[in-house]
Amino acid sequence: MINKGMEKALNGQINAELYSFYLYLAMSVHFQQTNFAGLAGWMRAQAQEEMGHAMKFIDYLHERGGAVTLTAIDQPKGEWPSVLAAFEAAYGHEKSITKRINDLMDKAIAAKDHATANFLQWFVKEQVEEEAVLDPIVMRLQAIGDHPGALYYLDHQLGKRGA
Ligand code: FEO
User: Fold this and answer.
1) Are 113 and 106 in contact (CB under 8 A)?
2) Mean pLDDT in each 10-residue stretch from start to end of the chain (163 residues)?
3) Which of the following CATH numbers is that of domain 4-158: 1.20.1260.10, 3.40.605.10, 3.20.20.70, 1.10.8.10?
4) Residue nearest to ligand 1 atom 1, measured at CA
Protein backbone atom coordinates (compact mmCIF):
# COMPACT_ATOMS: atom_id res chain seq x y z
CA MET A 1 0.00 0.00 0.00
CA ILE A 2 1.25 3.45 -0.89
CA ASN A 3 2.19 5.85 1.91
CA LYS A 4 -0.02 8.88 2.56
CA GLY A 5 2.58 11.48 1.59
CA MET A 6 3.18 9.83 -1.77
CA GLU A 7 -0.57 9.41 -2.27
CA LYS A 8 -1.06 13.16 -1.75
CA ALA A 9 1.80 14.03 -4.10
CA LEU A 10 0.46 11.73 -6.84
CA ASN A 11 -3.00 13.26 -6.45
CA GLY A 12 -1.36 16.65 -6.96
CA GLN A 13 0.14 15.33 -10.18
CA ILE A 14 -3.29 14.14 -11.39
CA ASN A 15 -4.45 17.74 -11.03
CA ALA A 16 -1.33 19.02 -12.84
CA GLU A 17 -1.90 16.62 -15.75
CA LEU A 18 -5.57 17.62 -15.96
CA TYR A 19 -4.51 21.27 -15.95
CA SER A 20 -2.10 20.43 -18.79
CA PHE A 21 -5.05 18.91 -20.67
CA TYR A 22 -7.07 22.05 -20.04
CA LEU A 23 -4.23 24.38 -21.06
CA TYR A 24 -3.64 22.62 -24.37
CA LEU A 25 -7.36 22.40 -25.01
CA ALA A 26 -7.55 26.19 -24.49
CA MET A 27 -4.68 26.63 -26.96
CA SER A 28 -6.45 24.33 -29.43
CA VAL A 29 -9.64 26.38 -29.17
CA HIS A 30 -7.64 29.61 -29.53
CA PHE A 31 -5.87 28.36 -32.67
CA GLN A 32 -9.16 27.18 -34.16
CA GLN A 33 -10.60 30.64 -33.59
CA THR A 34 -7.59 32.38 -35.13
CA ASN A 35 -7.59 30.27 -38.31
CA PHE A 36 -4.74 27.90 -37.55
CA ALA A 37 -6.60 24.62 -37.94
CA GLY A 38 -3.38 22.58 -38.09
CA LEU A 39 -2.06 24.01 -34.83
CA ALA A 40 -5.50 23.48 -33.29
CA GLY A 41 -5.31 19.80 -34.23
CA TRP A 42 -1.77 19.54 -32.86
CA MET A 43 -2.84 21.05 -29.53
CA ARG A 44 -5.90 18.84 -29.35
CA ALA A 45 -3.71 15.75 -29.76
CA GLN A 46 -1.42 17.17 -27.06
CA ALA A 47 -4.42 17.69 -24.77
CA GLN A 48 -5.51 14.09 -25.32
CA GLU A 49 -2.04 12.86 -24.36
CA GLU A 50 -2.31 14.81 -21.12
CA MET A 51 -5.65 13.19 -20.33
CA GLY A 52 -3.86 9.86 -20.84
CA HIS A 53 -1.16 10.93 -18.38
CA ALA A 54 -3.78 11.78 -15.75
CA MET A 55 -5.36 8.33 -16.27
CA LYS A 56 -2.01 6.60 -15.78
CA PHE A 57 -1.64 8.26 -12.36
CA ILE A 58 -5.24 7.39 -11.46
CA ASP A 59 -4.77 3.74 -12.47
CA TYR A 60 -1.49 3.53 -10.59
CA LEU A 61 -2.98 4.92 -7.37
CA HIS A 62 -5.79 2.38 -7.62
CA GLU A 63 -3.29 -0.44 -8.16
CA ARG A 64 -1.42 0.59 -5.03
CA GLY A 65 -4.53 0.84 -2.84
CA GLY A 66 -4.34 4.65 -2.77
CA ALA A 67 -7.29 7.03 -2.73
CA VAL A 68 -7.85 9.25 -5.75
CA THR A 69 -9.05 12.77 -4.95
CA LEU A 70 -10.11 14.96 -7.84
CA THR A 71 -9.69 18.67 -7.11
CA ALA A 72 -10.64 21.87 -8.96
CA ILE A 73 -8.68 22.58 -12.12
CA ASP A 74 -7.41 26.15 -12.59
CA GLN A 75 -8.80 28.11 -15.50
CA PRO A 76 -6.19 28.44 -18.26
CA LYS A 77 -5.65 31.60 -20.29
CA GLY A 78 -7.92 31.84 -23.32
CA GLU A 79 -5.73 33.71 -25.77
CA TRP A 80 -2.12 34.37 -26.65
CA PRO A 81 -0.70 37.36 -28.54
CA SER A 82 1.07 35.20 -31.13
CA VAL A 83 1.66 31.60 -32.15
CA LEU A 84 5.16 31.93 -30.74
CA ALA A 85 3.81 33.15 -27.38
CA ALA A 86 1.51 30.13 -27.12
CA PHE A 87 4.27 27.64 -27.92
CA GLU A 88 6.68 29.39 -25.56
CA ALA A 89 4.03 29.05 -22.86
CA ALA A 90 3.60 25.35 -23.72
CA TYR A 91 7.36 24.79 -23.58
CA GLY A 92 7.61 26.64 -20.26
CA HIS A 93 4.73 24.59 -18.93
CA GLU A 94 6.43 21.32 -19.89
CA LYS A 95 9.61 22.43 -18.11
CA SER A 96 7.54 23.00 -14.96
CA ILE A 97 6.00 19.53 -15.35
CA THR A 98 9.49 18.03 -15.72
CA LYS A 99 10.44 19.65 -12.43
CA ARG A 100 7.32 18.22 -10.79
CA ILE A 101 8.12 14.72 -12.06
CA ASN A 102 11.71 15.02 -10.82
CA ASP A 103 10.44 16.15 -7.41
CA LEU A 104 8.06 13.18 -7.29
CA MET A 105 10.95 10.87 -8.16
CA ASP A 106 13.06 12.40 -5.37
CA LYS A 107 10.17 11.82 -2.96
CA ALA A 108 9.74 8.19 -4.05
CA ILE A 109 13.46 7.51 -3.67
CA ALA A 110 13.56 9.19 -0.24
CA ALA A 111 10.60 7.01 0.86
CA LYS A 112 12.30 3.88 -0.59
CA ASP A 113 9.11 3.45 -2.64
CA HIS A 114 10.67 1.46 -5.48
CA ALA A 115 7.36 0.72 -7.17
CA THR A 116 6.52 4.42 -7.51
CA ALA A 117 10.05 5.24 -8.65
CA ASN A 118 9.72 2.55 -11.31
CA PHE A 119 6.29 3.86 -12.36
CA LEU A 120 7.67 7.41 -12.62
CA GLN A 121 10.46 6.32 -14.97
CA TRP A 122 7.96 6.36 -17.85
CA PHE A 123 7.22 10.02 -17.10
CA VAL A 124 10.90 10.92 -16.82
CA LYS A 125 11.36 9.63 -20.37
CA GLU A 126 8.12 11.22 -21.55
CA GLN A 127 9.23 14.65 -20.29
CA VAL A 128 12.49 14.35 -22.25
CA GLU A 129 10.34 13.77 -25.35
CA GLU A 130 7.89 16.57 -24.56
CA GLU A 131 10.69 19.11 -24.26
CA ALA A 132 12.51 17.71 -27.30
CA VAL A 133 9.37 18.20 -29.41
CA LEU A 134 8.57 21.73 -28.22
CA ASP A 135 12.08 23.21 -28.20
CA PRO A 136 12.58 23.04 -32.01
CA ILE A 137 9.03 24.31 -32.67
CA VAL A 138 9.76 27.38 -30.54
CA MET A 139 13.07 27.87 -32.36
CA ARG A 140 11.34 27.61 -35.75
CA LEU A 141 8.71 30.13 -34.67
CA GLN A 142 11.40 32.52 -33.48
CA ALA A 143 13.03 32.27 -36.92
CA ILE A 144 9.68 32.66 -38.72
CA GLY A 145 8.72 35.86 -36.91
CA ASP A 146 5.65 37.45 -38.52
CA HIS A 147 6.13 35.83 -41.92
CA PRO A 148 2.56 34.64 -42.79
CA GLY A 149 3.61 32.17 -45.50
CA ALA A 150 6.01 30.39 -43.17
CA LEU A 151 3.45 30.41 -40.35
CA TYR A 152 0.82 28.77 -42.54
CA TYR A 153 3.37 26.23 -43.76
CA LEU A 154 4.13 25.32 -40.13
CA ASP A 155 0.38 25.15 -39.45
CA HIS A 156 0.06 22.66 -42.31
CA GLN A 157 3.07 20.60 -41.18
CA LEU A 158 2.05 20.37 -37.51
CA GLY A 159 -1.55 19.70 -38.52
CA LYS A 160 -0.47 16.28 -39.76
CA ARG A 161 -0.17 15.16 -36.12
CA GLY A 162 -3.91 15.42 -35.47
CA ALA A 163 -4.88 13.97 -38.85
FE1 FEO B 1 1.88 15.22 -18.98
FE2 FEO B 1 3.04 17.11 -21.14
O3 FEO B 1 3.27 16.22 -19.52
Assistant:
1) no
2) 96 98 98 97 98 98 97 98 98 98 98 97 98 98 95 96 67
3) 1.20.1260.10
4) 50
